[in-house]
Amino acid sequence: MLSQYNILDIRIILEEETPPPPFPPVSDRSAWQAIREQLGEDGVNAYVKSAEQVAQQAIPPLPATLYLDFIRTGERLNYEDPCSQRREMLSTLTLAECLENEGRFLDPLLDLVWAICEESSWSYPAHQYYLTDMEQPYIDLFASMTGRQLAEFNLLLGDKMDALVSQRISYEVNRRLFVPYLTPHRDWWWMYNTLERNTNNWNAVCNGNIVSAAVLLEQDNRRLAEIIARAARSLDDYLETFDADGGSTEGPGYWSYGYGNYVLMSQLVEQRTNGRLSFLDSEQIRKISQFPANTVLSHNLFVNFSDCDQHVSLRSPLLAFLSKRLDLPELMSLAQQQPNADAVQTTHEILPWGLRDLFWTITPDVGKFVPNRHDWYEEMMWMMARYNPEDPNALVLAAKGGHNQEMHNQNDVGNIIVHVNGESLVADLGRGRYTKAYFSPQRYEHFVCQSLGHSVPIPNGQQQGAGKAYAARLLSHQHDDMLDVLSIDLKSAYPAEADLSSLVRTVSLHRDAPHGWVELVDTVAYAGGAHLFESVLTTFGTVDIADDHVRITGKQGSLEIACVSDGVSVRVEHVENVDLAEGEADVNLIIFALSEPSQSGEIRLHMRPVN
């Protein structure tokens, strides 16, 4: 990566290259007229109408007591929602003014930008954990994002505002971001991998937005070179969080967020240096860019292991840019099928993405996105197997091994998803609602973070432990046109009290006509005596039990599960009001159990779509 460049090399490039702005300021009317023509009259009117509504709204207040609300109650959104609303208002008003150029949104923008500059902290209270120390600005995700948003506003409309507005923006971004970022011996936890902790999406978001703001605001090339060089070293560690084949244990949702900000920065650095510095020219980057395409379950639904929502909307301009920049046509097809990919994005969008909705456009008529028949990430032990990738309603199996200290970890080693008719009938529940307790030592008291909230075994009444030592061991993986199989030993995922000699989980997708089927086999052997053994499947669907067959019925399809092992009973436990990020939901646990304590045993399940 760019750690090969030293500060002097980067400075020389910066001084030799004087490219045009990365996006046209409002004064470039020919460029904005082209965007108006691209949108059409109705599209432009939609932006303007949204801005007219926003201009009449009061700026949401952010008093000190509201900042303290997280510390006092553990609730995040009471502060985060109005804070985010301010940034969404900034995007809506800025883009409408650029399109219309009549000046009627400038005063609302002046008040809004000034209010953001006067916020005592740009960091969220959930990350800062104290009111505000004005002499020690704290850099978190949202502080860095705010700096970038103000820098892009300044690029577009700075020349139309009072000159002191640009000066204020530069002052605040420098004070809150550049100075603490460059302060010697003040390394941030998210900058480098250490023995205690690895980086995650924070690395890309914080580094990426600081570099982006510096590219747009910093006039001293020596200082800008130092910021880029410092970020380049740190971002090497971010890329190390990905599987050798480009996968991320944070899942496609955080790929869109973390890697999306990495790409935003990369484009600005490339543009500023006329391509002489690039963060995108490697085979690993191509692999990382393909990750969401490899984790598709069905139309706009993705594998959601760890803290990933069930419903993930990838940013279509991000996919479109990567498709063109890296010559990955499948990403353009994937971009085309994202929700609202063809709609005008006028609200609920921060400025960097709102701006790129207009400039990083989708190539029309690129054809239907079709995923691979089989995808495999060996280091993460993620397998995605599809009965017929041409059919979005066909059976899909996703399974994982890994360990229980992954990024945004849930104790889910061995978890599976069985997806049919566009619905996960054996489901990963997704991420819990983010609160103070969710990221505290009590994390694994939350149902969705426990192994009990996943489709994994319960040996001798024990749940999985948290930590890197609680891991799967890969036994075998194979795939061909008719059969995909993953076999892992889960013994080490459980504490010593489980008394395991071995616990082998083998999961496979069979492509027998007409619809295929999934086999799940758990084979247990205890070290010291006879114990109980159970295997759990989690579902949001309704469950009916008849003899040795179980039927899960969802909103769009059904799955029939047959237990073909002798001496196994089945029951259903209903869990109400599980606190998920997407809202409370009721969950059913289907528990297959050896009928009596045994030294060893097997539970073998066959799962078939019902049409």
Question: What would you say this structure looks like, in words?
Answer:
There is one protein chain. The chain is an alpha+beta fold. Helix content is about 35%, strand content about 20%. It is built from 17 helices and 21 strands. The strands form five sheets. An eight-stranded antiparallel sheet has the order 11-12-13-14-21-18-17-16, with no helix packed on it. Strand 16 and strand 17 form a beta hairpin. Helix 2 crosses helix 5 and helix 8 packs parallel to helix 10. The longest helix has 27 residues.
Name the features:
17 helices, alpha+beta, eight-stranded antiparallel sheet, 611 residues
Relative strand content: 15-25%
- Low-pLDDT residue intervals, each spanning 5 or more residues: none
Class from helix and strand fractions: alpha+beta
Could you tell me the number of beta strands?
A: 21
User: Taking Cα atoms only, what radius of gyration do you get, to the nearest Å?
Assistant: 26 Å
Number of helices: 17
Strand order of the largest sheet: 11-12-13-14-21-18-17-16
Q: What is the CA–CA distance across the termini? A: 51 Å
Taken from the alpha-carbon principal axes, the silhouette is globular
Give the averaged pLDDT, no decimals.
95
